[in-house]
Amino acid sequence: QVQLAESGGGLVQAGESLRLSCVASGTPSGGYSLGWFRQDTGKEREFVAAVSWGGGRTRYADSVKGRFTISRDFSKRTVDLQMDSLKPEDTAIYYCAGSRFGIRPTSETYDYWGQGTQVTVSS
Length: 123
Fold this sequence. Notes:
about 50% strand; 11 strands; globular; single chain; mainly beta
């Protein structure tokens, strides 16, 4: 069982940066990848980025490529999401998630979820 806890959300203006962090506790056998999803009010949850168990593979949604960077620190048991050049359409609750099935961009393949952290980008 894995427990995930996000931090770092807040209110910023368009063009600014924000860094989200997720701390993981517990380690299922075989390891797990970690990813970020987001959900805005009235919209479906969407994939943002993911990093593999070893940290060597990453995957990004087209909407954030070149602006967001995901990274994993095994010593701290964290996964961070550096978000640059933020846009109002990035406004959402951001969720950290863990998967035993690689870095797939579908929420159904993720077993573990954090409570979420709000990111609001004003224009």
